[in-house]
Design a protein that fits this description.
Length: 330
């Protein structure tokens, strides 16, 4: 039982909620700060809850007062101006600041696999990723020049029971069940790493209040990397669909008709992503992801069946998928 104090800015998202739960179970003294405007995922009763908009630094100062934390984790920092504000605010207030970056910041497409922490950071396709890279560069400069105690964590595609990996979410499942083809990028054979949030949380929590993690970056993912064809097949099986129909469409063709969808594909999902987790295991040797996507897919479908109000079809996207399927059907 560590007893170390941890401040989570955010804490009710797919990844962060699992990490809050794991940290409390490991004996950390956890405080969660958020705006309190959404229900989010449940937070353990033992967690101290604070309410403020982190972008309002005056309100943040009023809520935190003169508190210091062993570790501060910001789950909702995406741009350099946000992390610069954190550097200025939390310098001297914490022994470790954890920045949640993204594995999409790695060279895209990668020139070699598996991807490691030494893989260059370069993504010319997706602004989200470029912003994360800029944040990392700013924080590492603060570490070198000001001794700001940063640790960088790079998750890849991390999910819980509420999240479907195929574009459109439930729309894809509805298409499967209606006998309509699901759109798969490329030829469907690229490898994609999916990590359950409860597994990620074990590795992540092992980095908290660790002096050895300061000034370092860590990838935390599963070791399982199914193809997109296999991912769709697992979801179809979990959804009770025996005759899965798919149409394979180049990412560039999707980008031509839907810029946002295309950017997420070209900048991330269309490329094989397989990761070497040796570094996180060197510091957290008990990190061993246990949730296969076969199990995860069943959990996701069970959750949606128990929450019919979440079974929402995006009609506009569904129509676009019909058009793509007709155009690219073999």
């Amino acid at each position: 039982m560590t007893g170390a104090s941890v401040l989570f800015i955010g804490g009710s998202g797919v990844i962060s909620a699992a990490c809050v739960t794991e940290a409390t179970q490991q004996g950390y003294d956890v405080t969660v700060l958020n705006r309190g405007t959404t229900g989010g995922r449940p937070i353990p009763d033992s967690v101290t809850r604070l309410q403020a908009d982190v972008s309002d630094r005056t309100a943040l100062a009023e809520v935190l007062g003169d508190r210091h934390f062993d570790t501060v984790v910001n789950w909702i920092a995406f741009t350099p101006d946000q992390v610069q504000a954190d550097v200025e605010f939390f310098a001297g207030r914490t022994r470790q600041y954890v920045f949640i970056s993204s594995a999409s910041a790695y060279q895209t497409p990668a020139t070699h696999l598996p991807i490691t922490e030494s893989t260059p950071l370069k993504n010319p396709f997706w602004q989200y990723s470029r912003d994360k890279i800029a944040c990392e560069e700013l924080l590492m400069e603060a570490y070198r020049e000001q001794d700001f105690p940063v640790t960088i964590v790079r998750p890849s595609h991390t999910y819980d029971e509420t999240k479907l990996p195929l574009t459109g979410g439930w729309t894809a499942i509805a298409r499967m069940r209606a006998g309509k083809p699901v759109i798969i990028t490329g030829d469907g054979t690229s490898l994609w790493t999916l990590t359950h949030s409860r597994d990620f949380a074990v590795g992540f929590t092992g980095l908290l209040d660790r002096a050895e993690a300061i000034g370092e970056a860590f990838t935390i993912t599963s070791d399982e990397a199914p193809t997109w064809n296999a991912i769709a097949a697992e979801l179809a099986a979990a959804a009770g669909v025996d005759d899965l129909k798919t149409v394979h469409v180049p990412a560039e063709a999707i980008a031509a008709v839907d810029e946002d969808w295309g950017a997420a594909l070209l900048g991330d999902k269309a490329n094989s992503s397989v990761f070497d987790n040796s570094k996180i295991r060197s510091l957290v040797p008990w990190y061993r992801p246990r949730t296969t996507y076969r199990q995860g897919a069943r959990e996701v479908l069970a959750w949606y069946e128990a929450h019919p109000e979440e079974q929402v079809v995006d009609e506009e996207l569904d129509a676009l998928m019909d058009q793509l399927a007709e155009r690219w059907a073999v």
